[in-house]
Amino acid sequence: MELHYAVAWIALLVSVASLAISIAVLFRVYSYVRVLVEEFGKSLVAVKKHRRVKRYILVRFLCIDNQDYNTLENEIKNSVYSFLGPILKSRCSVDIISYRPESRRAIIRVRGEAVCVTYTLLALSIQHLRKNMRNCITIPVRTTGLISRLRRRYLKR
Q1: At residue 54, what are phi and psi to the nearest 5 degrees?
Q2: What is the CATH number of the domain that holds 93?
Q3: Is 69 in the same domain as 6?
Q4: How many domains does the chain have?
Q5: Are 106 and 134 within one domain?
Q6: DSSP assignment of 43-81, as one string?
Q7: What domain range includes position 58?
Q8: Are 128 and 76 in contact (CB under 8 A)?
Q9: Neighbours of 106 (CB within 10 A)
Q10: Out of the domains of life, which is the source (predicted)?
Q11: Are residues 23 and 71 in the same domain?
Q12: 109-147, pLDDT tens digit by residue?
C-alpha cells in the first residue's frame, strides 16, 4: 500500500513541477509577445500614409439609347461606388468632368489612393455585366495624370 502512496506523491510532484515550468515559460513568452506588439504598434504609427493621386480616365460609351449627361453621370457613379464598397468609397472620388455626346467620349477624374484608379478601371470594364448599367458599355481608352493630354489628343476628334 505504501508503494501506491509513493507513486502518487511522485506523480503529484512531477505535475506541480511541470505546472511551475509552464507558468515560467508563459511569463517569458508573454514578455516576448508584449515587446513584439509594442514594436508592431510603433511600426504602424511610423508607416506613412499612401499618397493621394489624381488620374484622368478617357472612356468611350456604347449606348443603346441617347442618355443625357446627368443620367449617365449618376449611373456611372452608382455603378463604380457599388463596386468599390463602403471602405474604398470613402477613400476614392469619381467625377465625370468632361463629356462629348457627339463623340461618345468622357473624361473621368479619380482622386484618392493609387488603388482607386485600378479598381475604378475594373469597375468601368465590367459594369455592363452588373445590373446597374444595362444600356451602356463603358470602354476605358486611356489613363493619364494630365487632363491636357486627353483634351488635346482625344476629345478633338
Answers
A1: -130, 120
A2: 3.30.70.3250
A3: no
A4: 2
A5: yes
A6: HHHHSPPPPPEEEEEEEEEEESS---HHHHHHHHHHHHH
A7: 53-153
A8: no
A9: 22
A10: Archaea
A11: no
A12: 998 888 888 888 888 887 766 655 557 778 888 888 888
